[in-house]
Design brief:
- This protein has an 8-stranded parallel beta sheet.
- It is about 45% helix and about 10% strand.
- Helix 7 (about 175-190) runs parallel beside helix 8, helix 9 (about 245-250) runs parallel beside helix 10 (about 270-275) and helix 22 (about 575-595) packs parallel to helix 23.
- It has about 750 residues and is α/β, with parallel strands linked by helices.
- The longest helix is centred in the first third of the chain and has 22 residues, at about 30-55.
- It binds glutamine and zinc ion (ZN).
- Zinc ion binds near residues 434 and 730.
């Protein structure tokens, strides 16, 4: 009996081998055969890991040189016109992904609610498509040569269309009849490779709020694909429930349905549909999104409670393991206790194997190794429940005892702003920036040298202070109104705070693919969070001491810290967010006591945390807003709280933003004119707004006239009393040569209006 299943495996390599091979190739330090060599080695190794762990269903075509959506576009021959004249397929592929001298890259966006970015296919009704199965058959045969019969992973047609965009006008689903025959042809060719090959179609789009149209396309697609002889089809979804789709799929001829039982649940109707159809349920009970060990006994209970006959169950990861760091084996700095609670992609394989053995056999039949694994698992689960490393009574009490006055500012905005205007004495249209100034090589090497113990604290701080001095001098010189210290001491806006908070851990090698060859290393929040000592106070007060102007304190907000970390699964996210909020509140209080009058609490990732289903949004909004308010409640009426969000699409969340009750919000509007600022007007938004007047994401220096035009547009929409003038995001990725003239133009343009 085939018992366990992995939706997909990370491909970047445990030492990020693929990243380095690709980057060498892109920088022309090697040729493509080197990348191919590394890719072959990695695939082989990853298959071997899965086989050794006892995984029954291992994938091929989960590998990619850049991205699986891009691969699917290539499989279908959906090459946008501007790339069609590139003859070399490798050059064409990477030009699509990254652009070249002559062509802009295809755009990139987040894969559902993950931090993985896929390439957005560009489709048009006039395109001519044609199947290209080389990658898929090659990979299948590579595994076969290694003695493995893999399942073949494909992105399903509905998800492919839903996540693509039309370059002519119209709906992507209009291309359904154009691409489905190609998918069918692909299955027929795959059927000729071997008998009974399993083809996994990823259809995660069905965990969102799907329309009847999408559901009927689902039915049509899998009725037709299911008619191909000699193939077993598995349709998998992940990241939330897919009950509607399950009911539809139960009435098609697919072999199996994959569901996420960690971030979703099966309702009655869907369970019955699966039971009656006799289809296999690929039960995702090992979390592919988070880094904690599985509670094996709980998982077994969950599997039994499904009430399905065992022949109908396969034990699976909840989604591809791509979203996890690779392995714990190179982590030398994490304490053994913390390590015992963690499980990365490689370790999850053993969990899957153990759960399936226990589910399909009995505990008595376990071999010695698995027996030990089970004992260790039970021990770790139990220490995690009680460990004093994790559980801090005072922190829990502090959250539980939050009183009314700690849940938000007590004076309404209308009154606060009057007091603030009286103390701050800023001119109309005050100018400021979002926080960071260019991160120079000097700063980076100083930070690195300090981390590696090559320079001492004094030497390090001196480099930072010199930089702050320069930032202050520059801002005074160009006559900005509200200054910043420039954030030279910060590597990353979340990591910096995580490193100073208790309850956070950092890996040495916990890289997760973000896009192409890029990886991120999110912090792990493993315990109750607190702030043992001030985090930014010294830097900000130092910067303030260098100027008579107002120095803005700069913090990262609780929701953003949470959304960019791996979070605890043993308590609700909302609770962790509130603990972080209290830590930030302590910092705000220290800053204002030290005379800092404006404090910015960045919530760059606020929107990212929204759930995939609309009816779950209000719960998120409630605790996310509450957390921000807890963080800022300590601010005196005279202390002005700013926040910043890095996007522009506020239409559906404007009321939520308003409810956060920040005195000033800076947002990214530079690229969309004043169209979205109108939303603020239409909703009668009352707080102050700093709509970015130029786009910092491009190296282009905006002229003074251009900024004047932009300001004029803003003034058509909002009254001058409500407006701030600033760039649309932090300046750390820019160069000084760009930043200096841009800000100078911004200040001059503003003065003209005054
Ligand atoms: N204060 C941060 C900076 O300026 C904000 C970063 C962001 O919005 N992503 O860099
Ligand atoms: Zn930003």
């Amino acid at each position: 009996m085939s018992k366990n299943y992995v939706i997909g495996f990370p491909r970047i390599g445990e030492k990020r081998e693929l990243k380095f091979a690709l980057e060498d190739f892109w920088a022309k330090r090697s040729d493509f055969s080197e990348v191919e060599k590394v890719a072959k080695m990695l695939k082989k190794r990853h298959w071997e890991y899965q086989r050794e762990a006892g995984i029954d269903h291992i994938s091929s075509n989960d590998f990619s040189y850049y991205d699986n959506m891009l691969d699917t576009a290539v499989m279908l021959g959906a090459i946008p016109t501007r790339f069609q004249d590139i003859e070399d397929p490798t050059a064409q592929y990477f030009a699509m992904a990254r652009g070249d001298e002559k062509r802009t890259a295809m755009s990139m966006t987040k894969w559902l609610n993950t931090n993985y970015h896929y390439i957005v296919p560009e489709l048009s009704l006039s395109d001519n498509y044609g199947l290209n199965l080389t990658k898929i058959t090659d990979e299948y045969n590579e595994a076969k040569a290694q003695g493995l019969k893999t399942k073949i992973n494909l992105i399903g047609p509905i998800t492919f269309l839903a996540l693509s965009r039309r370059v002519d006008s119209g709906d992507t689903f209009e291309l359904f009849d154009k691409i489905l025959p190609l998918y069918k042809e692909a299955l027929e060719k795959i059927a000729s490779l071997d008998s009974d090959i399993i083809v996994q179609f990823d259809e995660p789009i069905f965990v969102k709020d799907v329309s009847t149209k999408e559901l009927s396309l689902l039915k049509r697609a899998y009725d037709q694909l299911g008619s191909v002889e000699g193939i077993k089809i598995a349709v998998v979804t992940y990241f939330n429930s897919a009950n509607e789709a399950t009911k539809v799929l139960a009435n098609t001829s697919v072999w199996a349905i994959g569901l996420d039982l960690i971030y979703g649940e099966l309702d009655e109707g869907a369970t019955q549909a699966v039971a009656q159809s006799g289809k296999v349920l690929i039960a995702g009970i090992v979390d592919g999104r988070n880094i904690w060990i599985n509670d094996i006994d709980e998982s077994l209970k969950k599997l039994h409670s499904l009430g399905l006959p065992k022949e109908q169950i396969i034990v699976s990861s909840s989604c591809s393991l791509l979203h996890l760091p690779f392995t714990l084996k190179y982590e030398e700095k994490l304490s053994t206790e913390i390590k015992s609670w963690l499980s990365f992609a490689l370790e999850k394989l053993d969990e899957l194997s153990l759960i399936s053995t226990l589910f399909f056999e009995t505990e008595a039949e376990l071999d010695q190794q698995k027996q030990t694994q089970l004992t260790q698992n039970r021990q770790a689960i139990s220490t995690r429940k009680n460990s004093t490393l994790i559980h801090k009574e005072e922190i829990k009490q502090r959250v539980a005892n939050l009183t009314e006055s700690a849940l938000g500012r007590s004076t309404p905005f209308e009154e606060r702003i009057k007091k603030q205007k009286a103390t701050l004495k800023l001119p109309t249209l005050p100018t400021t920036t979002i926080g960071s100034f260019p991160q120079t090589t000097e700063l980076r090497s100083a930070r690195k040298a300090f981390k590696q113990g090559e320079i001492d604290t004094n030497a390090y701080e001196q480099v930072m202070k010199n930089y702050i001095d320069e930032c202050v001098a520059f801002q005074e010189e160009i006559d900005l109104d509200v200054l910043v210290h420039g954030e030279p001491e910060r590597n990353d806006m979340v990591e910096y705070f995580g490193e100073m908070l208790e309850g956070f851990a950092f890996t040495q090698n916990g890289w997760v693919q973000s896009y192409g060859s890029r990886c991120v290393k999110p912090p792990l929040i493993y315990a109750d969070v607190s702030r043992p000592k001030p985090m930014t106070l010294d830097w900000i007060t130092y910067a303030q001491s260098k100027t008579d102007r107002i120095m803005k304190g700069m913090l990262t907000g609780p929701v953003t810290i949470l959304n960019w970390s791996f979070v605890r699964d043993d308590q609700p996210r909302s609770l962790t967010a509130k603990q972080i909020a209290l830590a930030i509140a302590d910092e705000i209080d220290d800053l204002q006591k030290a005379g800092i009058k404006i404090i910015q609490v960045d919530e760059a990732a606020f929107k990212e945390g929204y759930p995939l289903k609309k009816d779950q949004a209000s719960e998120y909004e409630q605790w996310a807003v509450e957390s921000f308010k807890i963080a800022t409640a300590v601010a005196d009426d005279e202390t002005q709280i700013h926040t910043h969000m890095c996007y522009s699409d506020f239409n559906d969340i404007i009321r939520t933003i308003e409810a956060m009750d920040a005195d000033v919000i800076s947002i990214e509007t530079a690229r969309s004119g004043n169209r979205l600022l109108k939303i603020f007007k239409d909703h009668g938004y009352k707080q102050e707004v700093g709509p970015g007047v130029y786009d910092i994401h491009s190296p282009r220096v905006p002229s003074q006239e251009e900024i004047e035009k932009q300001i004029a547009l803003l003034l058509e929409v909002l009254p001058k009393e409500q407006l701030w003038i600033n760039p649309d995001c932090g300046l750390k990725t820019r160069k000084w040569e760009e930043v200096k003239p841009s800000l100078e133009h911004m200040v001059k343009a503003t003065k003209k209006f005054r």
